User: Fold these one by one.
Assistant:
Number 1:
Amino acid sequence: GLIKLNTNENPYPPSPAVARMLADFAAESLRLYPDPVCAALRARIAAQAGVGSENVFVGNGSDEVLRLVTRAFTRPGGAAAAFAPSYSLYPVLAAAEEVGYRTVPLADDFGWTEPPADLDASLFFLANPNAPTGVFYPLPAIESFCRRFPGVVLVDEAYVDFSGGRNALELAKKLPNVLVARTMSKSFSFAGLRIGWTIGSADLIGALYKLKDSYNVDRLAQALALAALGDWPWMEANARKIVATRERVAAELEKRGFRVVPSASNFLFVEPPAGRSAARLFADLREKKILVRYFPGGRTDNFLRVSIGTDAQMDAFFAAI
Ligand code: PMP
């Protein structure tokens, strides 16, 4: 009976092509190991992106991609860096690798802030649109940063299918130090299946293939991902529905006195009206079986992150607040 608006999952099912593939899947084939390098899946992703297979790494969700990127592109005694606030997994990955983690505080409106020239890090995690804010940074600013940053820039585009067609793929094609990461968890409704990938120069991609587990993406996931990628229009229509709901919810929240950070993702980062605390609203919503995300402390202390659900779920959310 819970309404889950807390982990940015997609409220709609994946393409019917996925259900068909699942029904037809030969369970007998599970006795065999999967393709260790996801050849068919990489070829499909590469064709869609206009790159070669050697430019594509497929992982067990983009979280695996991020972990391998941290491992590959930091060194003992070194550091990774990111904006603050940003995706909460980045500092965890740096800590797991026992490297430093530098943060660049975002501007008051959570918009683009130029990282300092003397940033002491070999890897920069650049989530665009950012999480948990949903803000989309200007691509020219990202490009000029990538051109002057001496290390690897990982542009984490987990939410980019909700950004109206803008993305940094061209940067990964033309700059040797840029990786663009995508996930099927959000726009393809595949959070339960674990498929993510990254695109970049063959050197960077090759480093990730040296480090990955032998069979990091299972046989069923590879087959179902291929089916889903064969129905790109379904994903796009699904994303359009969510964007339309997002815009309606944003306008409605503003009418009720919330500050709504402009979002290019499938969630909204909102500050309750003066006199109402985010912590309290979070707890009250939980009582009413509606889960949203709350990041206590610091600059996120009075904000809630609300994933966009179906229109009916968002109506229940409004009734509750
Ligand atoms: N990057 C960002 C910014 C995210 O918010 C998420 C989802 N939590 C991920 C990557 C990871 O997605 P997944 O591992 O499901 O592919």
Number 2:
Amino acid sequence: MRIKRISVYQVDLPLAEGPYNWSGGNTVRTFDSTIVRVETDAGLTGYGEVCPLGPAYLPAYAAGARAGIAELGPALLGLDPTQIGILNHAMDAALKGHPYVKSPLDIACWDILGQVAGLPVCELLGGRYGDDFILYRAISQESPEKMAELVATHRDEGYTRFQLKVGADPSDDIERIRIAASRLGPEDRLIADANTGWLMHDAKRVVAAVSDVDLYIEQPCLSYEECLSVRASTPHPFVLDESIASVHDLLRASNDDAMDVINLKISKLGGITKARQMRDLCVSVGIAMTIEDTWGGDFTTAAIAHLAHSTPPRFLFTSTDFNSYVTVSTATNPPLRKHGRLSAPDSPGLGLEPSFGVLGDPVLVIE
Ligand code: MG
């Protein structure tokens, strides 16, 4: 089986609750998402998606994904999409770095491999643990009172994990944490995600002021070394996200006891193949994970669901249903949250049928 055509679609995904804000004054109102369609000479078709969280979060941007696929795509024509190791090797040989460009192509090939095997991707990634898995809700950076209201609203929907976007003025952030925590029960978990927004002295003030709160601290500062310094000054469980972009980062951080949990984003690593490698390594060394991506719609949510559902539940701290944050659906049978939990689709591959009326015409075809 050979790849004969790669089509690229661009889709705007507006946020249902209005602007999503995080540290540093960053905000997104509508996501610019890229969906790839990989067609084979055997009549099988696979889909993948990449959706950066705007251009200022990670070294990735939406138009860059499409420019990268235009550069890389021709090197994949004629390759067998079911030989996923070989395919990833070819992508790395043709384009150095730029993992987010490779991610939707890798996901689409997993979709095809699942269809060939007659199995959902989660079963190829190790098996389906139980009926469903746990989700978190990201709470946009707003006033402390509004964030607490959003926590309460989403708790009523069944969520039990809440990631507060902090990383602003430390005194405001302390209030954000305290008010939100007051709305939660003992079964809930609260994460204060600064998204690199604090300096070390800011972070140390915050963790000292909320030392009595049952709370996780996520990526307080920009650099790994700053985060290590904050980690040493707090007993709170500690999550690293932006600082973990490769297996090398994970190995170093594990050896340094730099965190208890990592945030594993599929496109940051280059696709399901490399995310699975990191997932399995985390399971081996006892590090729990939030399994997710930078954002996206139905196809990203399905890819996340397959990786999360095949992760031992004790190691899956949280995952996410990004398609519930946006107003546009790109598939006719998307995975949908029930009571704060999600399950991976049951049909072979990713298990999604695209809505071509939403995708429109491709913005790029490589053949
Ligand atoms: Mg984070």
